[in-house]
Amino acid sequence: MSEYGAEGAPVESVSVAGNSDVVTARQMVRTMAQQAGLPLVQQTKLVTAASELGRNMVVYGKGGVIRSRITTEGSRRGVWVEFQDQGPGIPDVDLALTDGWTSGGGMGLGLSGARRLVDKFDLETGPQGTTVRVVKWNR
User: Fold this and answer.
1) How far apart are the first and last CA of the chain?
2) Residue 34, in any domain of the structure
3) Closest CA relative to residue 83, chosen from 21, 20, 5, 39
4) Is residue 35 included in any domain, yes or no?
5) Cα separations (Å) of 72 from 67, 111, 112, 122?
6) pLDDT digits (tens, 9 = 90+) for 38-86
7) What is the pLDDT of residue 105?
């Protein structure tokens, strides 16, 4: 059993190189959330987080792969999503997770906003790229 449970659950993935791929990934995440039985509000929060994180992959991480699967923990069901890029990494994670901070022309809500929208948020970064893993549980 992995940290996110349901090891061996079918994993779906989308390669992300541009904005149209982010749209495809959003749909994959929405479908997975529906299959996991997440209520509409929870689906919307997860899809919004996926959109923000996917956009960051395109803008800052030179694209990558988004993977998703239904996961369990005890009697809870949810959706696990991983965003993995091969970009230069995030030089200052604490700063990047600060509301309002942006390295580009955005509103500075991408990482910090995505973190607030999900129930579990893990980020690993370095010169080999950045990986963000999130979980949204059925409530």
Assistant:
1) 22
2) yes
3) 21
4) yes
5) 16, 24, 25, 17
6) 999 999 999 999 999 999 999 989 999 999 999 999 989 999 999 999 9
7) 54
Reading phi first (left if > 0) and then psi (alpha if -120 to 50, else beta), residue 14 is in beta
Structural element, H or E, at residue 72: strand 64-73
Q: Say if residue 114's pLDDT is above 80.
A: yes
- Which residues are 79's β-sheet partners? 70, 136
pLDDT of residue 58: 93
98 is in which domain, residue-wise? 12-137
Q: What is the DSSP letter of 87?
A: S
User: What token pair was written down for 49?
Assistant: 């987080």
Amino acid letter, 74 = G
pLDDT tens digits for 19-32?
A: 999 999 999 999 99
In a domain, 1, yes or no: no
Question: For the residues of 39-90, what is the DSSP string, one character each?
Answer: -HHHHHHHHHHHHHHHHHHHHHS--EEEEEEEEEETTEEEEEEEEEE-S---
Does residue 49 sit within a domain?
A: yes
Task: Give pTM, 2 decimals.
Answer: 0.88
Domain count, the chain: 1
